């Protein structure tokens, strides 16, 4: 079935879409309107709803599903949708939000299964038990949350998708550099961003929570490791080492890690996190670019444009 | 009784001193010697012990008390002690370490009593209970540890001395700016550096512990607040607010706070900490300087020299 | 009487307002309009005047008082006024500008009296005489100017309000740290920003003067101290010390002080200035914020948002 | 056979050693001496030769082999050799320099063979031909030079060792992220540091050449690619792409790359280079450290100390 | 004849103009329009063309000449042209692009002649031959290209204009500081920006080329010097010195020079380039400013405003 | 007559020398010695005086002239003098300090005459009168002071030497860029560093004064301009413009200018100052370097080494 991203300027659409964002406005002349961001799995698009009334705010609030007819046109270099018809979805049409939000390519169950394989290569019982305990405690959210509100892996199950990809890279590195401790490295990869399930509001229309703003996912997770060790009655250096892995994974104080990596595995964790996030951003930006052209500027990559070679 | 700091170049001494540091060396020609740093309450001094033997290392290890005779001379602008006689103290001479290390002017008991008064101005029961709980848990170390290994309040009971001084300043500010929340501010002041009792090794010959290096006193204390709340079965915003107060008190990411202050009281806590530490450093450096002269460079004050005016 | 800040979106107003800013514009279709910023003591609001003619520019210039009728609406998250009727105030209506601009809570006379008390604690005659001389010379402007064009204490008599608040804080610090020299500290507080009366254009519609741009209030005031000493025939270290207090009060070269503080009192002056300015900004921003919410971003506080706790 | 690194303080040695560095000195009292750095495959050590004469300078110049007897002692925490006997090696003793300098674990022939395998995965004929051409042109030096004068892979054949290790990592990444272009990535890895064979003086007693100082290995290699393309009469985007890979591999302007990476493969090349260099430095530093201890500070890793866990 | 810059707001024009930029747009209501930037030698102006059709895009593409009638009005402090009539120029009207683009005051032939005089003061045959060779190779573009896409010397023949001005300044400096080597200095000035003829797209509607983005004019020119030396069979230090002059002329790594200047002449070249560019920007900005006023902010001069004194 | 700089290692000297610096020391074994820095016009050298007594400190204090016999030797790559005989000069030997300190090549009278010529090109009477007034007021010190304590023009009359050289460069620039205002530029050059006569202690054994440390030469001179204008009863923009020229001549806040240049002439003054200082440092460092070698690192030039080409 044709999706939002498959339509071109000038074409007409008639689709079920999810309202990702909904903002009320008033024109300079004083009449009301609404700006909607509408999405399906393939992407999103902006649309204006002119001359709106009070009741429209509720009808077309964020996270609602609507049936929309209209036409695509180009507004300042970005596609925009001119709405001709719009109505809330009816219950009996049987459309669920999960059909309309982008998500990891693999199912969350498959991803979890892949992740669980890595425990078999871990030997240290303390590290294993703490990691399993925390994974289990947060498993449901961990399997559906995105890894970030934007930029990279910002889709349903993006967090576990990112972690599984990092584990693969971690295994490749541990094979090439056998002095790396797999227990620390794999546990660090699995736990490093679990704090996001508290820092962020959820898988849809994701925002920062108050606790996310005031403490941040790093501190949240370091606390969790501490509590897990208490609950499991585990003492020993492993607790501190795992906390340090999470604490230092942003690599520098100015990037939010109060301690720089002081374990070889912590240094490598920082690199693995970076490479996987950057590959995700680059693949996405280059996917929208023609050979022989430059991508749009990518803010978290120092605002650089990348070139897509014309050669094959 | 005349103390180490009272002697001048050329004078002879005959004193009980504590060995603060003890390092073995070999001259370029191959003979052994030891470099000792000797101290009493008034200050410390370097001394060389020439042509030493294996057994001297044990006899004159750090934290031992010795009876030393010798003469002060100037070596490259710093006083040095030429040792003429040295021997370990005998048990029946009755000299204890506490007589030989600098400490806060007031006794730790007096300081604790002053500190406890501030609880009477606090109203929020959650904040009070968590703060009292953690103070009690770490009370013994909290009353004897220094606030730092060097630079400011780096003496026995320096930590509680610093905290009481900050509380006084906090009260003055809360009086001038009544919108400040005293619960948060006082609790933040009391708790902000308690993590030092884990980060540092102890009141004498203080060094960083492994946990201190890998986690740091901020993270250690944020964990402790989290556990205290669990033990006391306190839930609610107060826990997160207290954690944020401690987390952000270094003021900037590059100074070790993974979150900048986002509470008015957290911003002010950072200032109070700074002012009290700087006044301590400045008073110490200016105390060693003549009117009309500049102090030595003070590294943690951006390596500045300060001028001591000639006017009164 | 109900003021501008008391009205909500949708309500009608009929008020005397001061035109704070007046800018002419042309629509893309070529018709003329004016953008006015209108204010009373409680705040300000933007309004558009459509299809204007040449003569309106004069009639509705900045610093004019007008009688305005209209309705508040929301434009891109900011309140805006839809003007229905507007006319210049008539002389016999007896509205003065001072009724329409925000100002310090206390009267300038009260503030001056409070300030003068601090001279009684000063002992050094040279410092006192120079400070009194310069205060007298610039007294009239000093009592009405704001401390800045925006951000903090940016209202009529904001400068003296800021200085009196700083003196209180200075006194509290001098009581806690008795080694501080009150002569230097109080004189430094009083004089540090007097140069603003040359740097800025006046209490209303405040802008930077050319001299303000090319020299700045710090340099202007350091010159003034030098001249005052000559006029009063005062020689001696005090002149240089006062100049250094003013010169260094921004704390760092990159913040406009060509010398960093090299006097203990200069270091503390920098802190006092900072704390008082920040408390003013924070109280203002938090005053507009609901408990459990974050303030808007505050640019001069590193663009941070602050959280207003929900606890009491 | 026992090597330099196997001896402990107090033991006597009698070894063939290479003079790595030789510097003349005069004592403050005016007598001549020489400071030698002596090495074998296992490491190096400093030694003093007292009361030397003119002719000793030639006899014991850098890159000479000597037979040395003496004893190890500790000087300021570093081992030093007290020379008792020293003489130049005799030709018939059959000692070659290659026996006395550290080198890659695998032979350069084996490393080259491993490297050549990667050409089989490359498809683009232009990229292949340019890469092969430049490899052949500089092959002899490329196989013996170190990758740097110090810090990482600073031994004979260190350059090719580093490149082969990077190729393995590159292959692992290309397998995980199939969108990576192997032609660009492998060619970039092979060529990125070939300019070092001009920038540095040679495999022994390595220093920067004048051209190395004034142009640097990046610029040198970018020129070489340009010339190679001309000689092979290859035109087309590939030339520019290869030049960009080399040009940008330091990642940032301030690290010596006049252009930041603008190709996905260039971004990844920068990471691969970093990871392999850091693993080499970390393994070396941790190899000299006991479990439960911290390494010495590693300057190119932001001067950090790393912790070697006590757990297994 | 009256030019674009001579008209004031409210006046009518009827002029031949060059379309410098042409961008299609759609109003929020969905109708098409075009934004044109129109220029003649005296400057440029923005204009809107409303309700356009498909065919207009071709008719009014960038680099086309048009005959335009209309009226100037002010839009947000910038002049804008309200188009009343517009049509493509006819061939028999005999208007050429060169009549409509700003260019250096002197003709390119005169500038070249001035430049060539400096060869007479050069003595080193290697430096001379390489410089002449490269000048000849790129002469045609070198004589017409701008020195930059904006900011300074951004007009037809701006590059050679900038170079000739720099040569004059170079000669003045060489006269004042006779230790400067004129061969290196003059050759460095002539060659430093020749790479711009590859980095930029041409004299009209100038943009960066792909090669310009990926390699940059510095690297491009350093390659060219290398090739020129090969073609001329010149070996010797001069080649490396010239490469270093070009390589380092941006002065710092973060400004795009992978090596900082390490030759006295390279250091001076950087200053000459800076002074001449800044004088060009300052004269332009001050030319548009009234005495007693400040210029607009000049971005490449750290975003500063400059004051134009009222004195004569 | 052969001077200090003409002797080589191994040669004997017998010269009158000035003691530039004199520092007492004690060996680790406890005997006294003195470290002297001895100079004549050609340069300076370090020497040790062993086994000294109390009275030697006075006899061989800084700024004394001595007759010294001894031998040059090399100590850690620096020449050092082994003293064999030393005695204070006798009055009847008729040696004056001025014969033994380096100074500008031209006499101060000639330099002043050259400087005065530039007044003939100045037209604005206010600027002229203020500049002449301040030159006259400080003329005597201005003609003998160095421009700095080290790095550049750090010799007797170095200040006026630097200013005259800058005036020549200023004239060359004003000829090339006729829009420059010569009044401002020349006055700015003459006045920019006059404050050094207060900031520094004098022409011999130059140090910073207290006022120099607390206020700095920029602030001192800006005050002086202000006072001069008052004394000469000159009002008008010129006073402010001259103050800005001096105030901004370090170019950036972090380099000690509280305002960045906002006048074209101020921007150029900063460049002229820089170029002249750098040429002085470079000529000095390159003068001590052989062709084909690098200079020692030059700290104020970002610690760079410069290459002295082998070509002529």
TrEMBL record, chains A, B, C, D, E, F:
Domain (HD): residue spans on this chain: 162-278
GO MF term set: exonuclease activity
Q: Which GO biological process entries does UniProt record here?
A: rRNA 3'-end processing
Which EC class is the enzyme in?
hydrolase
Keywords tagged on the record: Exonuclease, Hydrolase, Nuclease
Which domain of life does the protein's organism represent? Bacteria
E.C. designation(s)? 3.1.-.-
Q: Which NCBIfam families match?
A: PRK13480.1 (NF010007)
Name of the protein in its database record: 3'-5' exoribonuclease
Q: Which organism is it from?
A: Sporosarcina limicola
User: Taxonomic classification, please?
Assistant: Bacteria, Bacillati, Bacillota, Bacilli, Bacillales
